[in-house]
Amino acid sequence: MNILRLLVGLGLAAVTVNAVAPRHKIVLKSLQRAQHECRQYLPEPVSEEGTCEAYCEQLVLRSWSTATSELLYIPYGRHFKPDCTDLHNLNRTLDCLCTRLAKTPVENVCYWASAHWECYRDQFGALIDTPQIAPQPELLIRDTIEQCARILQVSDRELLVYASHRFTLSSKSRALQRCILIRQGLYTDETGPNLDLMYVQGNGYNVDEVDFIIKVSKCVDRVQLKCSDNSTMVTRVTNKCFPPGTGPLDYLLPAILAPIAKTSIDTERFETRATLRNPLVELMAPLFVSLPYALSARRRTSRWSLEQTNAYTFL
To answer: Which CATH class name applies to 27-135?
Structure first.
């Protein structure tokens, strides 16, 4: 709870973006704007099953994961500001969610979304109208990767090799990662990596936010002093400064390797019949069997295990 109050005091509970800096693919949206949009999208009158407005809003804010059918607590919580004198808002919010959701199947997404909206509104904090970061979904991340690959003339096979070496293989691979992070709006040569945005993009990574910001910042400062070019600096920061299971590589590697591996392996099976073989894909194929889970700690976290982690602490 002390950490939560510290975050509010540091101004980290509501991420904002410098209006002068290029936003690239960053999307800023307020909950009020999402409410306005969803009132246009949803039919009238409300059906007998009830309203899905909260579910629509969380989808528009990219705060609901359709892959895991759960709320992304870190980005959604940024739309609410706790009272710094309220020491029990977190416990009340958890109690509210446990009571509301205990006997409701997760398949009832509209009810789940409404329960989260009401518990946050009534127990966690006051709704704020400042637009917040909408995390970039996997499709947008893949699109960004493909754009940078085309800009730098990187083939699919080169992309697979670069990612398998965590972008450290060559100057071209390092330039590719730098391009991706710039296009995502998570890095600039002038200011370096934006750790606040990276934390939100990763839904908190199940780590303490203050500890994450402080430790990674110190490492970034050390790396910057030793690097003569920005592409090398970006690659060293992403490989050396983030705790395991956190940072941009936590979502970039699955986004790159999983779809390319599937396509390559399918092609390999077809080509084998014509006695053509791809040694690289054959060698790496075992890595791809459980790739999304092996490379992404977030996807291994169950819904209710969040109660025992710092991820839920920073609602």
So the answer is: mainly alpha
